[in-house]
Predict the structure.
Amino acid sequence: MKEKFKKDLAIGLEAEALLQSLALSYAWMGERAVEVKNDREVSDTGNIFVECEYRGRPSGIATSRSPWWAFVFNGERYNRQIIVFIDVNRLRSLCQGYPTVSGGDHGWSRGYLIPASDLVSGLFGGDP
């Protein structure tokens, strides 16, 4: 029992160190470390919008140099009580399974409309 506790503790400490390093990197480097997206529509639609183009030019996920993205689930249902962190390469791979749609301010953006549940579906046996 003692050995299992030691192993579990080490795994827990690794996870805490990862989150701490993300927070510290963001504090020092800003969006270069973690790109933060506040999605107000996810409460109503159940979808996350991942921008890839703005006014006909690559933007968002297409140009991001941040190694991590964080989606803050906002709106009446979530009220910023859920944040999903995802590795940018995993997110890019996930986006390839969806067509782009118009959205954002005045419809000037194009992006991938992804069901919020698909951000973590790979954890439960899915492909992403």
Strands lie at 34-39, 47-54, 57-58, 68-73, 82-87, 100-103, 109-115.
